[in-house]
Amino acid sequence: MKGSAMTRGSSGAAWGRSATMATRQSRAAPTRGVRRRPALVARAHSASESLWVPPGLDLPNLRHELQRETTTMNSGAPASVSSGGYDEHRAKTPPPDLPSILLDARIVWLGMPIVSAVSELLIAQLLYLQYKEPGKDIYMYINSTGTCRADGSVVGYETEATAIYDTMNYVSSDIATINVGVAIGNSCMILAAGAKGKRAMLPNATAMLHQPRIPATGSRQAIEIAIKNREVQAQKNDMLGILSKHTGHSVEKLNADMQRPLYMQPKDALDYGIVDSVVESKRVENLIGDVKAAKQWDTEAGLVAK
């Protein structure tokens, strides 16, 4: 009796485990031959799959637009947005730099104190214009305090100015000098060294002559001071000789006038022989000859169609 009860209990437990396993397998097993109803919500697949649209819904235009937008978003390419305003009319190519435009018009600009970098650039420009078109006039505009700053502190050497002067005489082209602001010290000497009849000042410009100055270099021995004194005297004599040649005054008169800074307004500079004329601003174009119109500059720079 007891053994029979145990047998029936074992059989019932085994049958229960079998039923549980069968139920789990039936749930895990895929349904074969049964067609699931598609979801009625349109969804976008990954970039590698096509966009799914519910069957029976004929939206060719919508399908194309959604696919194009999905591809663009997945590609990471930025959207193209048309912008108006200034950028819409921006030049296709950048305009040339201003010094190049001036140099193309044979204009040399001296607008800084005369230091080594400035003198090297001016000399290079003069030589370039000479070999490009020998004999054609060069126009030098001057607004410089020479080898000193406006406060009188020395920043350059007299030899920088004489190097520019020698190059002006070396080239075969006439150099017209025009003072548009200030021409002080060696810059005034360069102004006076322009071609005769082609030296000019604007109505409110200023010219000034002073003796050579040397930069402070700290303590020196007595022999070094004597050597430097001889060098400065030689540079002073060179400057006096250049000014005498181009103004017609004697070295003695120039030396006496330069004992103190000699300021000259346009009429004074004209009387002293530094310049040959005082021109009004509207007549500058007549002084420098043919000037390209703004439209011609833009066309050559590629800013407008030819």
Explain this structure:
The structure is a single chain. The chain is an alpha/beta fold and 306 residues long. The chain has a domain at 98-300: 2-enoyl-CoA Hydratase, Chain A, domain 1 (Alpha-Beta Complex). It is built from eleven helices and seven strands. Strands 1, 2, 3, 4, 5, 6 and 7 form a seven-stranded mixed sheet that branches. α5 links the parallel β2 and β3 (175-184). The model is unreliable at 1-11 and 38-48 (pLDDT under 50).
Supply database-style keywords.
2-enoyl-CoA Hydratase, Chain A, domain 1; 7-stranded mixed beta sheet; disordered N terminus; 306 residues; 11 helices; single chain; globular; ATP-dependent peptidase activity; ATP-dependent Clp protease proteolytic subunit; 11% strand; alpha/beta
